[in-house]
TrEMBL record:
Catalytic activity: phytyl diphosphate + 3 NADP(+) = geranylgeranyl diphosphate + 3 NADPH + 3 H(+)
Protein name (Swiss-Prot/TrEMBL): Geranylgeranyl diphosphate reductase, chloroplastic
Highest rank taxon of the organism: Eukaryota
GO BP term, example: chlorophyll biosynthetic process
Species of provenance: Liquidambar formosana
Enzyme Commission code(s) on record: 1.3.1.83
Cellular component GO terms held in the UniProt record: chloroplast thylakoid membrane
InterPro entries from the UniProt entry: BchP_ChlP_pln/prok (IPR010253), FAD/NAD-bd_sf (IPR036188), Geranylgeranyl_Rdtase_pln/cyn (IPR011774), Geranylgeranyl_reductase (IPR050407)
Keywords: Chlorophyll biosynthesis, NADP, Oxidoreductase, Photosynthesis
Chain spans, region Disordered: 15-60, 76-96
GO molecular function: geranylgeranyl diphosphate reductase activity; geranylgeranyl reductase activity
């Protein structure tokens, strides 16, 4: 009997220097002791001594670590993480990110409160003409948006994965060889960095039975399966240490700026961190002008961040839509590698974690807890569930972005609408809890009328402005 190992970049078989014989050095695992263990109904049983394993090609990222946490021991007897590292175990490759997470993520992923820098309960939405609308008035006392530093969140998740029995491998995934049959392994090639190699990279291989590609927007796993490209935005962010007295203003408050100056198709933000703020913006359509948009965002927040010192600069692609292909054989993509960031809000942390978990669950279930080799159909269940659950969310946010981020008058209308308590409640409820909240029919009707009114006014204003600029 074999057991199932969920790995984020690891096999039950130990990583070893590249060797043609490595394939045969298979480690047997302990029998499964899960209560879910049921009599075998194999569609394809494993060859003797072959232990099915799954793998995600990255670590330190929510999607990866969530994948491991789906099934702590004894359900999964061994787990491991491959984390990218340039040269040494101590170097950090934390994701570049604003770090805003919804409340439901804290509970769902059991995050400790001390890794949350700030609990944002107030949000200012600031229009192109600098009209500021306070949103968050409908929040209940226990509700907030969590602000984390990714280096803190990722390190916590990695350590927890390790404490749950995962082996963390410092290594850069390079490529993989495809299996020769439905039961033979994928051979992953990576450069390993550890104390044995003295900080100098060493080429190694690893054999695994399934791969969860959680390696972000520039995913090499996606390339390995010819997953195709997606349109992407570029996001730019500066961490700015501002004087303590200025930090008081951002105690529990975040700002979102909209306008052609800060971004033609997204928004600029100031998010509070432990002792500094993150100021950033993004764009799909005018990537070459990102620094100019960043300057404009800083300028808009100028009086509040005056005297600040830039302590870190970050820039990274953000996917705009899922890749044409997210699955091939026993390889599935999750998080940014798959392309799961929402339009309009640019949110991706929760979706990365959630997709990692869903994918891992599908593998655990499909393998019948390790008794059976998984096949493409098992992993496809994750995609089906994902699309069914989140497709409406992505679609609604896509439409909102197209409606409201297209011109300054439309943005003024958007900010005006945000003053409505009903809009705030609906927006916060769906953001914080990631579920579509049933509305009140009368309020829905009022909202529809107000939206149309705002858009008509925005359109009329745009036409007037076009005439002026002719
Ligand atoms: C500036 C900016 C601000 C953002 N702000 C927010 C926000 O406030 N809230 C929000 O929800 N989302 C935000 N996002 C989006 C969010 O950061 C991503 O959607 C999220 O990080 C995706 O997680 P992931 O685990 O899929 O990928 P990533 O976070 O990109 O993690 C990928 C991991 O894989 C590792 N890796 C990559 N290649 C390899 C390899 N070859 N071998 C081994 N490891 C590898 C990387 O080191 C990294 O640890 C922001 C994005 C940007 C760029």
């Amino acid at each position: 009997m074999t057991s199932f190992a969920l790995k984020t970049f690891v096999g039950l078989r130990q990583a070893s220097p590249e060797s043609p014989h490595h394939h045969h050095s298979i480690a047997l695992t302990k029998p499964i002791q899960s209560p879910l263990h049921s009599p075998a109904k194999y569609s394809e049983s494993l060859p003797e001594n072959r232990a099915p394993e799954s793998l995600a090609a990255t670590s330190e990222s929510p999607s990866l670590v969530a994948a491991q946490l789906v099934a702590p021991p004894p359900r999964l007897s061994r787990k491991a993480v491959l984390r990218r590292s340039s040269s040494s175990a101590s170097s950090t490759t934390a994701s570049q990110c604003g770090g805003a997470i919804p409340l439901c993520m804290v509970g769902e992923f059991d995050l400790p409160l001390d890794i949350i820098d700030r609990r944002v309960t107030k949000m200012k939405m600031i229009s192109p003409s600098n009209v500021a609308v306070d949103i968050g008035q409908t929040l209940k006392p226990h509700e907030y948006i969590g602000m984390v530093r990714r280096e803190v969140l990722d390190a916590y998740l990695r350590d927890r994965a390790s404490a749950c029995g995962a082996s963390v491998i410092n290594g850069l995934f390079l490529k993989m060889d495809m299996p020769q049959s439905s039961t033979s392994p994928y051979v992953l090639h990576y450069t390993g960095y550890d104390s044995k190699s003295g900080g100098v990279g060493e080429r190694r291989t690893l054999e695994v039975d399934a791969v969860i590609g959680a390696d972000g927007a520039n995913s090499r796993v996606a390339k390995s399966i010819n997953a195709g490209e997606y349109e992407y935005a570029i996001a730019f962010q500066e961490r700015i240490k501002i004087p303590d007295e200025k930090m008081v203003y951002y105690e529990n408050l975040a700002e979102m700026y909209v306008g052609d100056d800060v971004s033609p198709d997204f928004y600029g933000w100031v998010f509070p961190k432990c002792d500094h703020v993150a100021v950033g913006t993004g764009t799909v359509t005018h990537k070459g002008d990102i620094k100019q948009f960043q300057l404009a965002t800083r300028k808009r927040a100028e009086d509040k961040i005056l005297g600040g010192k830039i302590i870190r600069v970050e820039a990274h692609p953000i996917p705009e839509h899922p890749r044409p292909r997210r699955l091939s054989g026993r390889v599935a993509l999750v998080g940014d590698a798959a392309g799961y960031v929402t339009k309009c809000s640019g949110e991706g942390i929760y979706f990365a974690a959630k997709s990692g978990r869903m994918c891992a669950e599908a593998i655990v279930e499909g393998s019948e807890n390790g008794k059976r080799m998984v096949e493409e159909g098992d992993l496809r269940k994750y995609l089906e569930k994902w699309d069914k659950t989140y497709w409406p969310t992505y679609k609604v946010l896509d439409v909102l972005q197209k409606l409201f981020y297209r011109s300054n008058p439309a943005r003024e209308a958007f900010v005006e609408m945000c003053a409505d308590e009903y809009v705030q409640k609906m927006t916060f409820d769906s953001y914080l809890y990631k579920r579509v909240v049933p509305g009140n029919p009368l309020d829905d009707l009022k909202l529809a009328v107000n939206t149309i009114g705002s858009l008509v006014r925005a359109n009329a204003l745009r036409k007037e402005m076009d005439k002026i600029s002719v």
